[in-house]
Amino acid sequence: MLTSTPNRSLKREQSADLLAAALLLLLCVAFYLPKLAAPISAQDEGILLAYPDLILRGYLPYRDFAALYTPGSLYLVSLAFGLFGESLLVERAVGLLYWWALACSLYFIGLSVSRLTGYAAALATVIGLIFFPAGAYAMTAALALALGALLAAYRSYASGEPAAQRRLSLLAGASAGGALWFRHDVGVLVSAALFFMFLTGPRFRLARFFGGVFLVGVPLLAYLGTVGLDVSFESLVLDVLRNGPGRKLPLVISPALLALFALVAATVAAAVYGHIRKFAHSERVLMRGAAILAAGLLPSVLQRADGWHIIYVAGPVLGLAIVCAGLVLKAGRPGTATLRLSVTGSVCVMLALVVLSSFSAMRVKHTVPIVSGDRLIHFSAQPTARDLQRTVDELNRVAQPGWRIFIGPNDLRYTNYNDSFLYFLLPQLAPSSRFIELNPGVANRTGSGLAEQIASADVVVLNSSYDNWREPNASSVPGPDAANRVVAERYCEHRRLGHWRILLRCQSTEGNDG
């Protein structure tokens, strides 16, 4: 009887954790369902469809098309496409799983204080679903893996079994290596956080951590070497640096940004307090990692402090701040009722925010399906939707299978944005350019090869709605005019449908591509 009691207790805890994961999944689904028919973000979500589709067609990231982030999410979505079919719904379902993984990671980190704290920390991320667009964005997956690494590192210190400590240290490193596959910047950040977490205590933890990073990170290096270290470095490092000035926005101190600063400051202050007051070693390690991760995510927000970037960082940081606050309260040894009241209060406040925000943020704009064969996307219901459908229909009518296509803005001195989803809607056509997404300072720089790549196209589709792009950054600086000259000299307008122009190779230039 004495030996069965711990087993029953363990089974109850496992059942409670499984129930929590199920409840979080249901909550994520409830908030995510209205977004399944939300309008597509022309380039940002368009590449989440186009890149995995190209991978299934035999293209390799970096060698055959440029991408600013590591390929983990691209291959995961392509796997989902292969299993369930290539559709917007499947891609967005993968995004839902990313958010659920992020919420579960915060829930299990919150168990370091109490089960209610776990729920409160997880709900902090679920709230982000209300404001964040649908899609399998790599940042969400990378953050889920980063928090999973934090959790494994904490539990390696909290466990009293040497075998479990070694296993969890290895798992922490492997999770950090996994984050490298999805976003190399997040992977480097969480690896740094874990390094400082593992500095204290037996060195075997640090060795196992490095072993885990090596185990998962080396295949990534091998992959990059296979496709070409030169083109991989060009996309993942040089293009990211080139793109920075064209995407950076002037820093405007908004209430949301001030709240994020306060959360980061509170997390760091809690970690310092825990160190000074000599909290339990495992708790100090967790708080140290949380503070490094929270502070390290700030630069990605400050680069472009709009709602999108604030939200995907604020959710996890709010969750970590709740956990650190719970640890401080726990160390103060308040009565159980006081601790539960404080945590329950934070849950109620967040649930109230969810309810209040849902009236506006969850209201999905009316959309129009744009159909091409068995593929479709949801487009904003506006007069241009009809023109877009007619453009797709015309391309399907005039373009021969196997033709090469280029899609971009009307003025190619500025490569700020494009309709990358059209590559997904037209799978019978091959991209003529390695720039599926267009970024300022990257595709329109001198020596990018954009003009030569356009010259190999059979059909060109240009969108004039991006001509009035105005942002107070380097995206307003024009690049060379070579791409515009290629279009003017080699291509004749076939049809203009609203903002979209379809151009075919002029007969006088056919066979004269030199």
Question: How would you summarize the topology of this molecule?
Answer:
Elements: H1 4-32, H2 46-56, H3 72-84, H4 88-110, H5 115-131, H6 138-158, H7 162-182, H8 184-198, H9 203-227, H10 229-247, H11 255-276, H12 281-303, H13 307-331, H14 336-361, E1 367-372, E2 375-380, H15 383-398, E3 404-409, H16 421-425, E4 430-431, H17 450-455, E5 459-463, H18 482-490, E6 491-497, E7 500-505
Helix pairs in contact: 1-4, 1-5, 2-3, 4-5, 4-6, 4-13, 5-13, 5-14, 6-7, 6-8, 6-12, 7-8, 7-9, 8-9, 8-12, 11-12, 11-13, 12-13
Average pLDDT for all residues: 89
Helical content band: 55-70%
Label the overall shape: elongated
Identify the strand order in the major beta sheet.
4-3-5-7-6
Assembly category: single chain
Residue fraction in strands: 5-15%
Radius of gyration, taken over Cα atoms and rounded to an integer in Å = 25 Å
